[in-house]
Each structure stands twice: as C-alpha cells, then as structure tokens.
Known about the structure:
- By secondary structure, the protein is of the alpha/beta class.
- The chain has two domains: 4-22 and 98-225, 3-Layer(aba) Sandwich (Rossmann fold), CATH 3.40.50; 24-96, Orthogonal Bundle (DNA polymerase, domain 1).
- Helix content is 45%, strand content 12%.
- The chain is built from ten helices and six strands, in the order E-H-H-H-H-H-H-E-H-E-H-E-H-E-E-H.
- The protein has helices spanning 24-29, 31-34, 38-59, 65-79, 85-93, 104-113, 126-136, 158-168, 182-191, 222-225; strands spanning 11-14, 117-122, 144-147, 175-179, 194-198, 214-216.
- It is globular and about 55 Å long.
Amino acid sequence: MAHPAFASVRACVFDAYGTLLNLGDLSRGFADALGDKTVPVMDLWRRKQLEYSWLRTLMGRHADFWEVTGDALDYALASFGLDDPALRERMMGAWLTPTAYPEVPAMLDRLRAAGLKTAILSNGSAPMLEAAVASAGVGDRLDAVLSVEAVGRYKPHPSVYALAVDHFGVTPGEICFVSGNGWDVAGSASFGFKVAWVNRAGAPQERLPTGPDAVLTSLGDLPDLLGA
C-alpha cells in the first residue's frame, strides 16, 4: 500500500543527473589527469553549471545545457590554471556516457509493472539526454524523456515542471517527482508535485519554503513508498 501522501500518484518523474544517473563516476574518470585537484575542479564545475543555468533563466538569456556545461567547465579549469583541450573534450564527453545507479533498472521495472508511468524531466538538452539514457541502458524503461529546451528555461522555473503535467495529462498532485538535488526538491514541491528526495549523502534540507513529502536513501525504496 502506498504511503498516504502518495496515494493519488499516477506517474513518477525523475531528475536525471545525480538522481538516476551517477555523477560520482565523472570524478573517478578524471583522477588520472587532475590528481589532487579532482574534487575541487569537479565541485566547482557542477556548482557553476547550476549557477549559470539559474542566472541565464533570470536574465532571459537561454543557452542549452551543453553550452552551459562547457562554459562552467572552462571557468573551473581556468580557476585552477588548467589549459588542456584534450582533457576538456574528455570531460565534456563524460556527460554523454554516464551509468545508472545500480538499483535503477529493477526500481523502474517495479513501477511500470504496477501501472505507473515513468519519465525523466531534466535540464539536459535532448541530444545529451538521448545519449545519456542510451549509455545508462534505461531508455526502454521510460515512457518519456522531457528536456527544458521545450520551454527555454531551467529548473526550478515552474514552466519546466509543467512539462510533465502537460505530457501525462494529470494534475501536479498525481505526479511523484524524484530528485537527488535539494534545490530541485524545493522547486518541484513548490510547483505542487508529491516529492521524494533521494538523499544519498545525508545532506541537511535546504532552508526554503517547500520540501519533500518523503526522504529516501536509495531509489530501491521508492516502489514500496508508492505501493508498487
């Protein structure tokens, strides 16, 4: 039986990067080239990637996530005095070849067997997501892969979350949104989704007006939460 907060859910929509797809693999892939700079470079890259997406949305100056990711990487590399075009190409390419967290395939199979629709809703551009989903081997377990490019804004703008409502023809309260990112949890909850936060790192909750309806440490716990 589903948790009472999720009893009305008809579709389960996932963030991609850091939720279904393991960003930790990116760091491990470049330790040979970055050495003791690996963690700070990767952390700065991800932080700037998100900051640029939010700032571009606020400024009304949209660029797709591939360009934003490249700009963020250029900033991170320059910050550490690194100028290596081959390394840059390698690092960008990693966004096209991620792996899924180990529990993801079985989790998606259980949700679909229970009759729930499944989708990704991501900041990623359509080509990035197509490549990433194929690399992770989860494409045949998803009913849709939705990109912010359809509205030209980034999460947490409400128009992005509305893409899932429009696609499935349901109300916000009939969607379980799942993310590993605290800011995305707050944004999706503000929109009106039922939200499950996959808090693998045990991070504190963001100090924002809205938060999750449930907190998980693994996506493997999601089917039980939804009664699947």
